[in-house]
Amino acid sequence: MTPGATPVNAADDFLPLIVTSPSGAGKTTLVRRLLARYEDLVVSVSVTTRAPRPGEVDGRDYHFVSHDTFRAMIDRGAFAEWAEVHGNCYGTSLEKMVEARAHRRGMVFVIDVQGARMLKARVPDAVGVFILPPSFAELEARLRNRGTDSEETIARRMKNARGELAHYGLFDYVVVNDQLDAASEELNAIVLAERAKRWRRAQAVERVIHDGSAR
Amino acid sequence: MTPGATPVNAADDFLPLIVTSPSGAGKTTLVRRLLARYEDLVVSVSVTTRAPRPGEVDGRDYHFVSHDTFRAMIDRGAFAEWAEVHGNCYGTSLEKMVEARAHRRGMVFVIDVQGARMLKARVPDAVGVFILPPSFAELEARLRNRGTDSEETIARRMKNARGELAHYGLFDYVVVNDQLDAASEELNAIVLAERAKRWRRAQAVERVIHDGSAR
User: Fold this and answer.
1) Per the domain annotation, does B85 fall within a domain?
2) pTM for this predicted structure
3) CB-based contact A209 B133, cutoff 8 Å
4) Considering its fold, how many domains does chain A have in total?
5) Averaged in consecutive runs of 10 residues, what is the pLDDT profile of chain B (215 residues)?
6) ipTM summary value
7) What pairing do the DSSP bridges indicate for beta strands B88-93 and A173-176?
8) How far apart are CA A78 and CA A55, in angstroms?
9) How would DSSP label each residue in A109-121?
10) Domain of residue A41, residue span
11) Would you say residue A166 lies in a domain?
């Protein structure tokens, strides 16, 4: 390949980033800060068959589709992972990631542990970050402080969290969300470091070796 | 092992960081900034048989030793790598790294590409960062601007740089030192991200799973 030419695989410089955690560990807040820091990252928006709730915007909160459309997407392999919950389907679109590769430098998937496991299997070069609560006691306190869940839901989430933690071995990084600022700095650093990985910089090095410029 | 007990291998949390580059690419300045940012990192001080120059401090600039001592260190395998240059020996001590593991969180090795290659072979868990000049033209301009090297030395350094760049594949990260602030932020991020690597956090996760605290 001529140095400086369009890369054969544009994905070389693209970062698929999976951010997962038990419910209540703080992944949503951390990702909001990450997106504010890196404008060339975009978040993956899930596809769902459920009806929009008041205030929800199509394409921002979810891609709202019919059951027929969802079924057709399954059939053509459009999903990295999907699941049915209480009669509604939710899925993570691989097609949207392919679109994003053309004009963004990365896509962030904020997803539960089960979904992250499936996504990682479909996108092997995805970088997985597991957000860890500092302790189960703290996690329970946070779920209770949100004030949105019943005692029964909290008990279920805590039981799930114990099962989910056992899957941390599938992920590349573990960020302990004890102090939000420190955890946020770590997550941001992971993106910067991953972009400096040698194989993602290989084309820049080749350009210097061939006496062009690295930028 | 009981969660929270002293780890069997204290090195789990220790980061050996190799920073290498062709001469003039800026590794010294970047590492000075890195050490200012992370006080729990220490820089590896080379061992040499050459005499101290005016102003040089033993233990800060070099560990100054006799030829006999150096020879004894070679014989007991004390060096990760060593070389003889113009009749003087220079070496990187593995023993100092073992000492540092006891009370520091990492050791930075600022070293040329040949030495880095040997060091990486001896310390397989070391993380290698290759500092890349933005172009050969810029590298030559920087060497000339230093005003310390003769034209002959500059020509030799440029020839070496071309050979050294070909070894970048041995390293984990490539940082392009185009803008100093951006390059410095990247190098600092690499340390933060490496510390969040799953296997370095495994004991913290195990403590949470066993219902202690992650910190």
Assistant:
1) no
2) 0.88
3) no
4) 1
5) 41 85 89 95 95 94 96 95 91 91 91 91 93 91 87 90 89 95 97 94 87 64
6) 0.86
7) unpaired
8) 27
9) EEE-HHHHHHHHH
10) 10-46+104-209
11) yes
